[in-house]
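Encoded backbone
================
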Amino acid sequence: MKITKMHSVYQLAFMPRLFPVNCYLVEEENSLTLIDAALPYSAKSIIQAAKTIGKPITNIIITHAHGDHVGALDILKENLPEVQVSISSRDSRLLKGDTKLIPNEKNTPIRGGVPKNIKTGPDILLHEGERIGSLEVIHSPGHTPGSISLLDTRNRSLIVGDAFQTRGGIAVSGTVKPLFPFPALATWDKETSLISARKLVGCQPSLLAAGHGKMINNPIELMKKAIDQAEMK
């Protein structure tokens, strides 16, 4: 695991050179919020990273319910029983393994590795504009129907799950990057992803932190270029 800190955000990158899977610790005054839960074997390293920082993990927020974002959730909850787990109301269904569409959603199959045996249920179902600590929930569907992003209101760091990727070149979810095509192949609806990408760049982020790839400081122009490429395709 590789740890990188920018602003209030610690990126925990697993297999960074081969198949990077990221989760994030966001530092609050007296605690840490974990965003996503990476892979099943990641729990020990996540807990150790928090100990090194010297603050307890009090919240886990899931950006979307794919296996590489919830893999260590059960083990983390067993080791941190007081932690509160949050996910969007919509993706709470995916967390249970339910891939059925709901009324008014595009008739496009939900793709990607939806978990089938996660035991941990959410304590909080999140909606647009709600806050957990310094983090504001931004509804950003497309990769999954209920994907969310988190904006740190103190410094405008933006953690986007798979709404963007930076591995293989920055791209909107659904845009295939030959060097790392997997987020695109796991995307539910490209058009919805593009709408969400425009919304996210409108947040004027100072930092872009994605589920796959390195963090990017001052990302707005690169995000706009990725949106332009997605629009052309």
Q: What stands out?
A: The chain is about 25% helix and 25% strand. The chain has a mean pLDDT of 97. Residues 220-232 form the longest helix (13 residues). The longest strand covers residues 21-27.
